[in-house]
Automatic annotation (TrEMBL):
Protein's organism: Quercus lobata (Valley oak)
Cited Pfam families: FMO-like
EC number(s) reported in the record: 1.-.-.-
Family: Belongs to the FMO family.
Recorded name of the encoding gene: LOC115972371
Keyword match Manganese: no
Keywords: FAD, Flavoprotein, Monooxygenase, NADP, Oxidoreductase
GO terms for MF: flavin adenine dinucleotide binding; N,N-dimethylaniline monooxygenase activity; NADP binding
Protein name: Flavin-containing monooxygenase
Length: 473
């Protein structure tokens, strides 16, 4: 296959607006070395801050570090259970095309290396390798303290705007240090959220959350009820159908008239949500149908969880709303010294992390100004009121979907950097449509070749990598 080698500088041109005050450099703690923490570290360092990244694992990559291990409580109720960070399953391939998914300053292009995965929707290992390449390219590991878990973050009482961080190394050693600012990048796909089901305490079957799903084998010959309709739920139901006796998918999005056989399978059925479950093992659905099931698999999402954060009640998680937060990033009363990267979901995560962290870095250095605390609170309250008026439950506060690009462009404008590329927006929309239309084959059967070419042309402007046109062929 032909490959193209491109010389480049790996920076998007950023016309910087004049700083409102003299620039300042701060000592900043970043919690987590997943994709969000890595790009945050770069943006902070680029802006002249000194950075320490705390990472409880032994490598970078966060979610993308696959492990076959599962937690001691497969449903995730027991707070004392052994915890595993990643929720990846073995067969996982990305649900976004690589061109769209990658960082803007470091495109996720296919490598000209036979050991790598050149597919447009690669397997999870390729994403981890990409993040490792990114880490090497920007020398981020020198900023990371591995095997060091942050166990407490709180304001220093005597000195306003200073944060005390207590961390614990795997060796058992504790340390407490003072920072000017903290950026929280701890991920939000680790703490399971489960469906409330009438009668569940009496039901004799097993329960599991998709956080602990790795391979289909444990479901062999079982009757499985799987709850959910996300991209992972769709993948997992199909994975399991290969070995299970029956798979019954229950989802809010399935109305009575759509329930029935899942096309292409003779052992999978769609149902509306579960109505109730009973002592004799039956699971009733809202349309009155029922099955005798062995296991309920909750593919029902995750909870935001910041067990280390103490803000005297200023920042709370209420029905999965982390708030109050200005633009999903800064709590007005603690801005700019406390911030969050990566909370929005149903997004293209990496480019959004990049823009959020660029904004944080510039605000911390005084290059960009925030509105007053009162104005930020007004904005937050207006946002919450608009959600309420449109009937949106609180737990969807950080769900972006179609508004993500407007949000990204707002961030880009704050930072004086180019808006999200048209091809990226179109590619996201096209691939989402394709995924809904053909969940089985969207990763290998696509028609947006023209967008791939536009993306590759764009990458050539600022990448130094070898871009293989295998993915465009
Ligand atoms: C099943 C699944 C499939 C996905 N598929 C895609 C996809 O196809 N494309 C896509 O773009 N995105 C996908 N995502 C979203 C994915 O989560 C994001 O792409 C991204 O990896 C999130 O990065 P993060 O840095 O926010 O969080 P994480 O990757 O979760 O990283 C957080 C890091 O923080 C560390 N940490 C947590 N708490 C502490 C602490 N107290 N002290 C120190 N360190 C701590 C963790 O060890 C971890 O390394 C998927 C997610 C899941 C769960």
């Amino acid at each position: 296959m032909p490959t193209t080698t491109i010389q480049m500088q790996c920076h998007l041109p950023i016309p910087q607006p004049p700083a409102p005050h003299p620039l300042t450099s701060r000592h900043v703690a970043v919690i987590g070395a997943g994709a969000a923490g890595l790009v945050t570290a770069i943006e902070l360092r680029r802006e002249g801050h000194s950075v320490v990244v705390f990472e409880r694992g032994d490598q970078v990559g966060g979610t993308w570090v696959y492990t076959p291990k599962i937690e001691s409580d497969p449903i995730g109720f027991d707070p004392a259970r052994s915890k595993i960070h990643s929720s990846l399953y073995k067969s996982l391939r990305t649900n976004l095309p690589r061109e769209c998914m990658g960082f803007r300053c470091y495109p996720f292009v296919a490598k000209d290396d036979p050991d790598r995965d050149p597919r447009r929707y690669p397997g999870h290992q390729e994403v981890l390798w990409y993040l490792q390449d990114f880490t090497r390219e920007f020398r981020i590991d020198e900023l990371v303290r591995f095997e060091t878990e942050v166990v407490r973050v709180r304001l220093v009482e005597e000195e306003e705007e200073k944060w005390k961080i207590k961390s614990k190394q795997r060796s058992g050693k504790d340390e407490t240090e003072i920072f000017d600012a903290v950026v929280i990048c701890n991920g939000h796909y680790t703490e399971p959220r489960v469906a409330q089901i009438a009668g569940i305490n009496e039901w004799p079957g097993k329960q599991m959350h998709s956080h602990n799903y790795r391979v289909p084998e444990p479901f062999r010959d079982q009757v499985v009820v799987l709850i959910g309709s996300s991209a992972s739920a769709v993948d997992i139901s199909r994975d399991i159908a290969g070995v299970a006796k029956e798979v019954h998918v229950a989802a809010r999005s399935v109305e009575d008239e759509k329930s029935g056989d899942q096309s292409g399978y003779d052992n999978m059925w769609l149902h509306p949500m579960i109505e109730s479950v009973h002592k004799d093992g039956t699971v009733f659905f809202q349309d009155g149908s029922f099955v005798h099931a062995d296991i309920i698999l909750h593919c029902t999402g995750y909870k935001y969880h910041f067990p280390f954060l103490e803000t005297n009640g200023i920042v709370n998680v209420d029905d999965n709303r982390v708030g109050p937060l200005y633009k999903h990033v800064f709590p007005p009363a603690l801005a700019p010294c406390l911030s969050f990267v990566g909370l929005p979901w149903k997004v293209v995560p990496f480019p959004m992390f990049e823009l959020q962290s660029k904004w944080i870095a510039g605000v911390l250095s005084n290059r960009f100004a925030l509105p007053t605390q009162e104005k930020m609170m007004e904005d937050v309250e207006a946002f919450y009121s608009s959600l309420e008026a449109s009937g949106m439950p609180k737990r969807y506060t950080h769900n972006m979907g179609s508004s993500q690009f407007e949000y990204n462009n707002w961030l880009a404008a704050q930072c004086g950097c180019p808006a999200i590329e048209d091809w990226r927006v179109q590619m996201y929309n096209t691939s989402s449509k394709n995924r809904r239309a053909q969940p089985e084959s969207y990763r290998d059967d696509w028609e947006d070749h023209h967008l791939v070419l536009q993306a590759c042309e764009d990458f050539m402007k600022y990448t130094t990598h070898k871009i293989s046109d295998r993915s465009a062929s």
